[in-house]
Structures are given as structure tokens and as C-alpha cells.
């Protein structure tokens, strides 16, 4: 929930994440899916190291001002080597029980191998 900053609120009391200009994606443990649940055809080299036991929510990202490039690569059935230009920036592990901090901790642990 976005709030306007008021002096009575201390930024240190909130968890925040930077807004990226990327394409939302969900890793379900087997494949990447779009926000609408459609498969994203990422090549195996991109998915190497993704955890099979933790769902991860994030954005495919090619850099600032590169949304069109990101979407163009991610929406192709065969993006090939162009996928090397993308990163999967993770901001949640929605299948993990507990609060946001617990889910984020599990997301970090699942990606450090």
C-alpha cells in the first residue's frame, strides 16, 4: 500500500522496494509465468539455478528505460541469446508462510547456491 510521506511516519518503520521498469514474472518452481498466468518461454540457461521448491515473484529487467526491450525478449517463444540481457529481480516468495520479512529471507536463501 503506497502512502504519502508525512512527518509522523518514520521511513525506517517501513519496508520498501525500488520500482523497476520491468515485466512482472512469477517462478512457480517449474516455469516462469506472466502476471496473467501465461507461460514465459525462458531458455534453460536463464533458468539454471532457479529453485524447484520455492515460488518467486519478481520482474524481468533489462535496465532503466528498457521496458520495451525486456517485453520484446520475454514475449518471444524463442528469445535465444537475447535472454542474457535480462535479470530476474526477485521481491517476494509468496508461497512461504509468515510475514514479508520471512518470505524475503526465504527468497534470498533459495537463490544463494
Folded structure, characterized:
- The protein has 113 residues and is α+β, with helices and mostly antiparallel strands.
- Helix content is 21%, strand content 19%.
- It has 3 helices and 5 strands; from the N terminus they run E-E-E-H-E-H-E-H.
- It has helices at residues 44-47, 67-74, 100-111; strands at 23-27, 32-34, 39-40, 56-61, 87-92.
- It has a 5-stranded antiparallel β-sheet with strand order 3-2-1-4-5.
- A hairpin with a 4-residue loop joins strand 2 (32-34) and strand 3.
- The longest helix is centred in the last third of the chain and has 12 residues, at 100-111.
- The model has no long low-confidence stretch (mean pLDDT 89).
Give the SSE layout.
Layout: E1 23-27, E2 32-34, E3 39-40, H1 44-47, E4 56-61, H2 67-74, E5 87-92, H3 100-111
Could you write a compact summary of the structure shown?
With 113 residues, the chain is of the alpha+beta class. The chain has helices at 44-47, 67-74, 100-111; strands at residues 23-27, 32-34, 39-40, 56-61, 87-92.
Amino acid at each position: 500500500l503506497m502512502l504519502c510521506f508525512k512527518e509522523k511516519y518514520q521511513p525506517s518503520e517501513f519496508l520498501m522496494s525500488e520500482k523497476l521498469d520491468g515485466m512482472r514474472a512469477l517462478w512457480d518452481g517449474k516455469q516462469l509465468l506472466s502476471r496473467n498466468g501465461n507461460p514465459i518461454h525462458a531458455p534453460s540457461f536463464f533458468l539454471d539455478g532457479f529453485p524447484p521448491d520455492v515460488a518467486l515473484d519478481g520482474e524481468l529487467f533489462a535496465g532503466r528505460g528498457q521496458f520495451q526491450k525486456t517485453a520484446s525478449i520475454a514475449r518471444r517463444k524463442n528469445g535465444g541469446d537475447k535472454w542474457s540481457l535480462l535479470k530476474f529481480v526477485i521481491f517476494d516468495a509468496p508461497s512461504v508462510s509468515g510475514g514479508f520479512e520471512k518470505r524475503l529471507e526465504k527468497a534470498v536463501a533459495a537463490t544463494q547456491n
